[in-house]
Amino acid sequence: MRDWWRLLGHITRITLREGRRSAVILAVLVVCEAGVIAAMGLSQRELVDDSAAGATGGVIAAVVIGALAYAVSAVTGRVRGNLLIYIVGRVRGRVSEEIQRRVSSIPTITHLEHAPYIDRWNRIFGSSQALSAMPWSALNSVVAVLGLAVTVGLLASITPVLCLLAALGVPLVLANRRADRLLRDSRDAGTELLRHEERLHELCVSPESAKEVMLSAGGPALNRRAAAMWETAAVRETTARLRGALWQSTAWMAYAAGFALAMVVVARLIRDDRSTVGSAVLVVSLATQLQSQLRVVLDSLTTAAEAGQAVAHYWWLRRYPVDDSGISPPSALTDGITLRGVGFRYPGAAADTLHSVDLHLAAGSTVALVGANGAGKSTLIKLLTGLHVPSAGSLLVDGVPLSTLSPFRWNARLAGVHQDFARLRLRLRETVGVGNIRFIRSPTVVGSAISQAGAPPFAGLETQLGAPFGGVEPSLGQWQRLALARSLMREVAGDRPPLCVVLDEPTAALDPLAEHELFQLFVDRARAARLAGAVTVLVSHRFTTVRMADHIAVLDDGRITEQGSHPELMAAGGQYAELYRLQERAYR
Ligand SMILES: Nc1ncnc2c1ncn2[C@@H]1O[C@H](COP(=O)(O)OP(=O)(O)OP(=O)(O)O)[C@@H](O)[C@H]1O
User: Fold this and answer.
1) Of the residues 112, 357, 379, which should be mutated to test ligand 1's pocket, given the most ligand atoms within 8 Å of the CB?
2) Distance separating alpha carbons of residues 445 and 459, to the nearest angstrom
3) Gap between the Cα atoms of 413 and 337, Å rounded
4) Which residue has a Cα nearest atom 18 of ligand 1?
5) How far is the CA of 383 from the centre of ligand 1 (A)?
6) What is the average pLDDT score of the chain?
7) Which residue, judged by its Cα, is nearest atom 13 of ligand 1?
8) How far is CA 97 from each of CA 128, 217, 226, rounded to the nearest angstrom?
9) CA angle 61-66-68, nearest 5°?
């Protein structure tokens, strides 16, 4: 509950910052609207009773109050709705920005790769509306409860038994909510089916997959499956609608019966001279408003509760460790990077991916990681770059644990390309320039990075990339060169040289000659950067490239089985030598 209040305070402060005057007007309107219902009912009662008694002054006063109440109701309803959309929209923008900023400032990628975390983000983003509306749902709840209390008080003032009418409004509102919930649940349950249905259709129309679908002649079967899924979801939704309508009709019948009984009670009171015709009018007026008042109370309580659920996720995010208090990495490596007994298990995985890895990446050297698919090479790269944190052992940078370095300052001293490089379909200048955002507008720096990576210049730096955006669609190899160019941006711009360059199959999509040239380029750079002691870590399945490395580590099922220089490993005659000879024979 403390978290709820703290968040309410936080969102209220954002609301006041975003539009203090609009917020104050809205708050006044919300409070005014609560009094309007009672004023309208009372003015109608006075109008009828004073007309019957021939009290002209009373009639005029009732007409003026009634007219004012109607006018306020009409104006406030419209203005209030628009103001609420405006204010909550602005606050939502700020809240979403804050959430995005926090998510992107987490230095590791664990939270982006694993289902429980991803579900949390989705829930936090999904509830940004409820969070932004928190001050209003809280105020609405308080005002609606007060308004309801006034209505019930007025009914009780005629005769206490009429309070039961308010009680009959509750099933009505609950039935409406149940109908909404049934519909929502059916849609939630259908979401997965519809997502599959959409994916199946996408398979048939997206250029990448359509080729395979055509080859396998599987199009009609996929379409049939997709249609069946859509139908199942549609039937579920229709059934939910019918069930909801049944609940609503039953509750309306009960409310209508209660209303009729209330009118009988009032009629008897009038007959016995214990009440007036005006009171009957008041009952009709209040009874018609009661249901909407109850709905507002329950709706605002629901919104507050929804926000309450989001509160827990929100504070979880706020408390997620984003620690940048660590020390700076050294300006140059003298010893290198050492892995001591490093183990790693992905969150939620049943087994470790890396087991007791001992490896020394000497300053200024080039180290190649080789091994079968799934051996753990990319995972090791992710640990070196701080994208994941080892589950066991230690990773030392010049003898200092990586965990004690500032993750952001360590990031700033990394360069390279990951296996799953991004295809940024922007303008060529931006696609490459994001590698060093300060120089994204510099044609000299961007142009130089492009030419050093041997990436195509296309029709100039402002060329739009990506066929879906009406631009040029680079080939896979060209995309990979663009990723390489991106990774060169920091160095080309003259930033501090990297301490660690990771190249995870950076040239898998390149032809062998291009791969050889590019790797040579990176090796030369690494040698040139020897002063900074940069370590270059390369993952490749091509042994002609791998043999150029100073040190080679062979990974098998998350363990290092062999390591040494190319001649040493060849002389040892182990797995490396066998694989090397196999590839050599294949290329002969
Ligand atoms: N995000 C992840 N969550 C859970 N398990 C993962 C994740 N990424 C990789 N793995 C698992 O870790 C193991 C090692 O994967 P990794 O990508 O490091 O292998 P690799 O040696 O680089 O393979 P390849 O040569 O195919 O690129 C695999 O069994 C893989 O299924």
Assistant:
1) 379
2) 17
3) 13
4) 376
5) 12
6) 85
7) 374
8) 10, 46, 37
9) 95
CA distance 188 to 194: 10
Alpha helix stretches (DSSP H) within 105-218? 110-113, 115-126, 128-132, 134-158, 163-205, 207-216
* Torsion angle (degrees, nearest 10) of CA 241, 245, 247, 250: -170
**CA 209 to ligand 1 centroid distance, Å:** 24
The minimum-distance atom of ligand 1 relative to the CA of 555 is 21
Phi, psi of 369 (to 5 degrees): -110, 125
340 has pLDDT over 80 = yes
- Protein residue with its CA nearest to atom 26 in ligand 1: 373
In ligand 1, which atom is closest to the CA atom of 369?
21
Provide CATH 3.40.50.300 ranges for the chain: 329-413+498-588
CA of 377 to the centre of ligand 1 (A): 8
- Residue that the structure tokens 């998510």 belong to: 103
Report the alpha-carbon distance of residue 142 to residue 69 in Å, rounded: 21
For helices 277-319 and 56-104, the axis angle rounded to 10 degrees is: 10
Q: Whose CA is nearest to atom 2 of ligand 1?
A: 346
Instruction: Give tens-digit pLDDT for 274-283.
Output: 888 888 888 8
Grade residue 379 by pLDDT with cuts at 50, 70 and 90.
Answer: very high
3-class DSSP state for residue 394? strand
Given a cut of 70, whether residue 529 has pLDDT beyond it is: no
Given the CA of residue 371, which atom of ligand 1 is nearest to it?
A: 21
Backbone angles phi and psi of 508, in degrees to 5: -60, -30
User: Considering the domain 329-413+498-588 in this protein, what is its CATH number?
Assistant: 3.40.50.300
Question: What's the confidence (pLDDT) of residue 287?
Answer: 82
Nearest CA to ligand 1 atom 7: 346
Two tokens at 558? Answer: 């998350």
DSSP 357: E
What is the rounded CA–CA span in Å between residue 325 and residue 529?
28
Residues lining ligand 1, CB < 6 A? Answer: 113, 346, 349, 353, 371, 373-379, 419
Determine the distance separating the centroid of ligand 1 and the alpha carbon of 558, expressed in angstroms.
10
Backbone dihedral angles phi then psi of residue 327, each to the nearest 5 degrees: -85, 165
Closest CA to 228 of 179, 193, 262, 259: 193
Query: Of 377-381, 382-386, 529-533, which gets the smallest average pLDDT?
Result: 529-533
User: Is this prediction's pTM over 0.90?
Assistant: no
DSSP at 472? B
- Residue 378 Cα to ligand 1 midpoint, Å, equals 7
In the reported structure, the alpha carbon of residue 361 is separated from the centroid of ligand 1 by a whole-number distance in angstroms of 21
**In this structure, how many other beta carbons lie within 10 angstroms of the beta carbon of residue 239?**
12
